[in-house]
Write a structure and sequence with these properties.
With 468 residues, the protein is mainly beta. Helix content is 13%, strand content 39%.
């Protein structure tokens, strides 16, 4: 009879533990990234009052007689791999992980792990969570700014001072495109067809280069055209180029400009290839537009740049995209900054306007000058037994002997079939209907175990009252 009392007490304790877990689940029903827990019961030791016996020739075998001693909490399991529903926030640094991976965060030099992707930046531009843990990832390869160097994880600084601006670049390429109609009267006029292109110097200042395109009247097939520089003006519409010859009408400026080494070049249509090309040195199809300071010591050579280790002293102008078809006497020729593949266009200095995060966790800075720059990549951690991670509060976990260890490098989220969604948060995975159902059964189980104690007490009372 005393055993039943202790069995009832054990039942009360285990059901109270289960109720505590249920209460914690319900309390965190709206906690971002919370993972619900469940309690498993098991029976405890048994007292054997009679051992099992085997059968003999004259008697049958008997089973053992065992009396159970109640129940205990076998385990408390966290459904850590079950994703909660998604909530759209449209915040730049809110992220949701799909799959079994964890964000890696660090505090005091120790790495922890979390499913909660509610991040922001601190005063130094470092990516952190709400508790000040630094978000860890991989840095951009210093030898190749378009690639990630996947070594030991370190803190990510998407809005550091270095990332807040995009350095300017000089225009190194331009091309003429459109159609030339050889019957266009504009091409035979004194003023010719006006063409302009916007360019940048190495400091990011903008200029407008104007040309005049005219048809060479000495060619019977009208295949030869003259392209002449007429002016180069800065953003304030002030002429920056001129000549040193006082007898000319050109405005005096601090720079001189040449294309193909002269003030004008000739461009010829090749009927065999159907393309235009610069009539210059043998095999040279493009012409170089060069702008040089008259006094380098005073002005500085701002139209000189180094691209991928190669020195550029001018702008390479390509004519191969021009066509020559009949179009009702109207030409559509225009100059475009940059090569046909959109490289070499140059840019002004830009400010960080936004940060974009793709599904693999790569962070890209989007700048006001149109540049998109790789800033780093979020690394994630995976474990052989993620349910064995130990919860520390603040929605972070740490490793245990049974979870497996973090190698300090991590992996890309897409390697495990997962992805990162920007502007989305993972909500709690608590199922209220299941929790309330468990609450009912737990309550009834607790009630039934309390009846064991009261009934056993009544039986003891009857025993005591045998002698009166």
């Amino acid at each position: 009879m005393m055993r039943s009392l202790y069995s009832g007490v054990a039942g009360l304790k285990t059901h109270q533990t289960k109720m505590d877990v249920i209460g914690n689940n319900i309390a965190n029903v709206n906690t971002t990234g919370f993972k619900s827990s469940s309690v498993l019961f098991s029976d405890v030791l048994y007292q054997t009052s009679a051992n099992a016996t085997g059968a003999t020739a004259t008697t049958g075998g008997t089973n053992a007689s065992q009396i159970g001693l109640g129940t205990k909490t076998a385990s408390i399991q966290t459904s850590i791999t079950q994703n909660g529903s998604a909530q759209t926030t449209n915040n730049t640094y809110d992220m949701m992980l799909s799959g079994s991976a964890f964000f890696v965060v660090s505090r005091g030099g120790t790495n922890y792990f979390t499913k909660v992707g509610s991040f922001g930046v601190d005063g130094s531009g470092c990516l952190v969570n709400g508790s000040g843990y630094q978000v860890m990832g991989w840095q951009v390869d210093p030898d190749n700014p378009t690639q990630i160097k996947k070594d030991t994880v370190s803190a990510l600084y998407p809005e550091s001072e270095a990332n807040k601006v995009s350095s300017p670049q000089m225009t190194t390429d331009a091309h003429l495109t459109g159609n030339i109609d050889m019957t266009d009267p504009e091409l035979t006029s004194v003023d010719g067809r006006a063409i302009s292109v916007s360019i940048y110097d190495a400091l990011g200042y903008n200029y407008t280069v104007k040309f005049k395109l005219t048809q060479d009247q000495n060619q019977a097939d009208k295949s030869l055209y003259n392209l002449e520089i007429t002016s180069i003006k800065d953003s304030n519409n002030i002429e920056i180029t001129g000549t040193d010859d006082p007898t000319t009408d050109a405005v005096e400026g601090g720079y001189t400009a040449t294309i193909g080494g002269a003030n004008s070049i000739q461009v010829k249509f090749d009927a065999d290839t159907g393309n235009f090309e610069y009539v210059g040195a043998a095999g040279q199809k493009n012409a170089m537009l060069e702008i040089k300071p008259k006094n380098p010591n005073e002005k500085g050579d701002v139209f000189q740049s180094v691209i991928n280790g190669e020195k550029k002293d001018g702008i390479d102008v390509d004519f191969s995209y021009l066509t020559r078809f009949e179009s009702n006497g109207k030409s559509t020729v225009k100059a475009v900054r940059g090569a046909a593949d959109s490289t070499g266009g140059g840019r002004s200095m830009g400010k960080l306007n936004d940060v974009s995060i793709d599904e693999t966790g790569k962070l890209y800075g989007v700048y006001t000058n149109g540049e998109t720059k790789l800033l780093g990549q979020i690394s994630v951690a995976t474990f052989e037994n993620p349910m064995a991670l130990e919860a520390l509060g603040n929605s972070v976990y740490t490793t245990t002997q049974n979870s497996g260890y973090f190698d300090g490098i991590g992996t890309s989220v897409d390697e495990d079939g997962g992805k990162i969604s920007q502007g989305v948060l993972e909500m709690s995975n608590v199922d209220l209907s299941a929790e309330f159902t468990d609450m009912i059964t737990t309550q009834r189980g607790f009630q039934a175990n309390s009846r064991i104690i009261t009934t056993s007490d009544s039986m003891l009372e009857e025993l005591v009252n045998l002698k009166r």
